[in-house]
Amino acid sequence: MQAVKYARAESVEEAVSLLQDGGAGARPLAGGTDVIVQARERTRDIDVFVDIKHISEVVAIEHGSDGSLTIGAATPCYEIYGDDSIAENFPILVDSTSLIGGTAIQGRASLGGNLCNSSPAADGIPSLIVLEAQVEIAGPNGRRTVAVEDFCTAPGQNVLDSGEFVVKLHFPAPAESSGARFLRFIPRNEMDIAVANAATQLRLDADGSVAWARVAVGAIAPTPLLVADAAAAIVGQPLSEDTIAAAAAASSAAARPITDMRGSIRQRVHLAGVLTERTIRQAAERAA
Amino acid sequence: MVTAQSQPQSKETEQYNVIGTRPIRHDGVDKVTGAAQYGADINLPGMLAGRVLRSPHAHARIVSIDTSKAEALEGVLAVITNADFPRASDEVIDTGEGTAQLNWVLDNVIASDKVLYKGHAVAAVAATDHHIAEDAVELIEVEYELLTPVLDVRDAMVDGSPLLHDGLHTGEMDGSKSDNASNTASHLQFTKGDLDSGFADADVVIEREFETSMAHQGYIEPHNGTAYYRADGTLDVWTSTQGAFVVRDSVAPLLQLSPSQVKVTPMEIGGGFGGKIPVYLEPLAGLLSQKTGRPVKLTMNREEVLLATGPTSGTYMRVRMGAKRDGTITAADVHLAFEAGAYPGSPVGAGAMCALAPYDIPNQRIDGYDVVVNKPKTAAYRAPGAPQSEFATESVLNELAEELGLDPLEMRLQNACEEGAQRADGFTYGIIGNVECLQAAQESPHWQSELQGPNRGRGIAQGFWFNIGFESSAYAQVNGDGSVPLVLGSTDIGGTRASIAMQLAETLGISAEDVHPHVVDTNSVGYTQVTGGSRTTFAGGWAAYECAMDIRRQMEERAAQIWECDASDVSYGDDAIIRGPADEDGNDQQFTFKALAAQLVTSGGHIVGRADVNKTSSGPAFATHIVDVEVDPDTGKVDVLRYTAVQDAGTAIHPAYVEGQMQGGVAQGVGMALNEEYYYDDSGDLKNASLLDYRMPTALDLPMIDSIIVEVPNPGHPYGVRGVGEVPIIPPAPAVRAAIANAIGVHMNELPMSPRAILDATVLGGD
């Protein structure tokens, strides 16, 4: 590890200013579970860490009176899965935050950090995508909002400009009779990076047909993907073996993975379908 | 304090007071409170931080190394390359669980003319802090001429393959060498009977090919080495090692020092499994300290451990085995090609001797090839060579049983070696527990239970490992309060302070808690071989026994002196009562151990017992494992549902630690079976050099492993000890393979049997 400086921001404005001053070598520090490792292994050139987790809105969980949800970008996973209201209304966030790292990592790791690390295999991002999360970004030119599916641009890269960082994530209220589920496949039972992962949110009509759906798949492309064709395959009719199989096939068709030490192309294409099928079934169980 | 007795002793150990009980380990408090000092905990005044520059290439000639920029960096005190070491000869030195040419040892520590694997050390620096040391290695300029990497054992053996070593010729068992240079360092062959007639007698013959990946021991503590070259020309070394004397006897010739000039202090060790026997950092720290006159500490990070320290061999294996319809195995032909890594010395010899060791097969041929490839030099790993070779043979045996419609356990009993059976390598068994293990497995609740549910299957496999003896030393002093410090040279990896102290206590008739074992440096105890080969409780315990017998003799003499009688009239009983002849009044004269201990100082001084044993014998170990798995056919993932390990321990000195060894061996064996592999790209870059992507099983990946200890005492040991550490890693892979086949009907012929491999063999339909 190279010698690094540490700066603690007390406000969003101060953080922006510290990031601007630090230039390319400055990096926001939330839980640090990715960036500290990257600095130590010298895979990312970092001169100064700007600690953002002492800014109250960056570590807060707010429940709107309309059922919407706002989570500060640096809020640690354990606070998210330990929040009763989130567990009740957004259980898919519990799916994701309870399997990012182990228990100790979950004390620090955050959804904002998971998003900004922008790994194709991130276990938080597919859930954010199917929940239609909006990313609130602060920077030298003030604040802007980006749809989460547009945030990542390539492995390790995203839409953040110099001096910008993610402040919080906004989630619309879940509709009646809706359910969402995230699953990942790893060869072991914990402490691993997804070979492939998937999330589905869907809403059922009174007659049991799927009124609306979103499906996202990860680790099968340079960024986590929103798969509109998979959702289209199940919307407008009751779930059946055929519609679920069509959705799975759509996810497999959308996959354009690589072969690496975690999985092969055809394994990932296959798993994109398997996990799409399983998340649809389990999201429907939660909706019912 | 009395010996803790949480569970009753076994039937076989009821005769003993201490052996077979479960006292708390003597090093336990330090370990659980964090007070224990591991290698990286050493900090000395003026100590420098060292760092190693490693090759980014798998196979390249070093054209030039320019260290001038690194040397010019402020805070850098020394930069060394291979050229700074004294020239090493090709003399063969003892490297613990084997031997090696000194120049190969040096070249593996730091490359000379060629780099032979990614991560091969090229240069090392010492600087005032580790940030500077890291910056300095980046300033060293190395010009490489890239060569074609040789990454597969079969490719390496082909005529015309690029050669790793120009001067390497294939050695045969008769001492002859091949005319042409080759990547095959040696070929060995063991034969028995007449193979052709054996196969002619068979009703069913099955032949299979297997490939296994390199696998790392996965000890959690990375390698480390700290050295201080003192003004008087002596070198102090602190390191985590399985063998302090092996470190001494490797470092001394590499630096052209006398062994008496090198003192090695073995620190507490965070796992080894054979991998902490070779030297990597110690010679570099030694030379850097010689250059700077200051202590130098080197530590590896996880990536360096996986890139550059010895895993076990990847292999290509072929087994042909024939049996009669009644299950009698008539012939077996075994071909083993083992990757040695960059320098000769794979464990193929041991693998060959173990391949068919549990079975009395009249006609056999076993060929083994030791082959260099552009991967890290392999090191010992728990029963080196046997998990691979026995995976191949046990797998074919299971398929034969399936083909013949026979119970695989019954078929093993039918062919099992018993006392007097001879292996193809010529060794004849004495009293062994092979059959007893199979019988205990047969009677186990697991084997007697019925397995239900879809995609579930059960498998079984047998394992054999030699265990070894060799040299161990001990001395012990009797203090006035009856406590006994025991001084040992064996690094304590698996509870051997306790298991050795218990044998001393048993022999003296005192409690385990009255013995205080200490592991000391190479100047403070007699020569002791490595903690490896399942030898430490066996040979260390034997040394403790002889040390205790030495104390008993001296205490008899002391009592005779006090009683003014002949020592031959005094006897030290196994109840720790020292009895003499009746006194003038006709009263019995006797001392308890503690009563005599209290009189030692005033009657002539303390008593020190000593022993040095060197045993060529050992106690062969057998194991039978049963496993139930469930396979997810959509993802290829295998979950281990239930596991039972049966093993002959000879005598289980401390049953809890025997169970711990059995469970640990199973965990590592299941890791090799399911997910652990070295994943290289075509350039020879190891792509999964982290514990994130080198997937060892976690606590959630294994059920509680049931252990059944069989005790067939080893007649070649005072307390019947056989080694226990290694054999339990052998049966898991073939047992899991059989269970997968039983679950989904597919026989996997490669390790690991990962989800990817299982999907490829099933729904994704082969290559």
Looking at this protein, list some descriptive labels.
heterodimer; A: 288 residues; Enolase-like, domain 1; 5-stranded antiparallel sheet; 11 helices; 33% helix; B: 767 residues; alpha+beta; Aldehyde Oxidoreductase, domain 4; 6-stranded mixed sheet; 20 helices; 31 strands; 26% strand
Give your account of this protein's structure.
In chain A, 33% of the residues lie in helices and 25% in strands. Chain A folds into three domains: 47 residues, Uridine Diphospho-n-acetylenolpyruvylglucosamine Reductase, domain 2 (2-Layer Sandwich), CATH 3.30.43; 116 residues, Uridine Diphospho-n-acetylenolpyruvylglucosamine Reductase, domain 3; 110 residues, 2-Layer Sandwich (Enolase-like, domain 1), CATH 3.30.390. In chain A, the strands form four sheets. Chain A has a five-stranded antiparallel beta sheet with strand order 4-5-10-6-7. A four-stranded antiparallel beta sheet of chain A has the order 11-12-13-14. In chain A, strands 1-3-2 form a three-stranded parallel beta sheet, with helices on one face. Chain A is α+β, with helices and mostly antiparallel strands. In chain A, helix 9 runs antiparallel to helix 10 and helix 10 crosses helix 11. The N and C termini of chain A lie far apart (51 Å). In chain B, 58% of the residues are buried. Helix content of chain B is 26%, strand content 26%. Chain B has 767 residues and is α+β, with helices and mostly antiparallel strands. Among the domains of chain B are: 279 residues, Aldehyde Oxidoreductase, domain 4 (2-Layer Sandwich), CATH 3.30.365.10; 147 residues, Aldehyde Oxidoreductase, domain 4. Chain B has a seven-stranded mixed beta sheet, with helices on both faces. At the A-B interface, helix 11 of A face helix 4 and helix 20 of B.
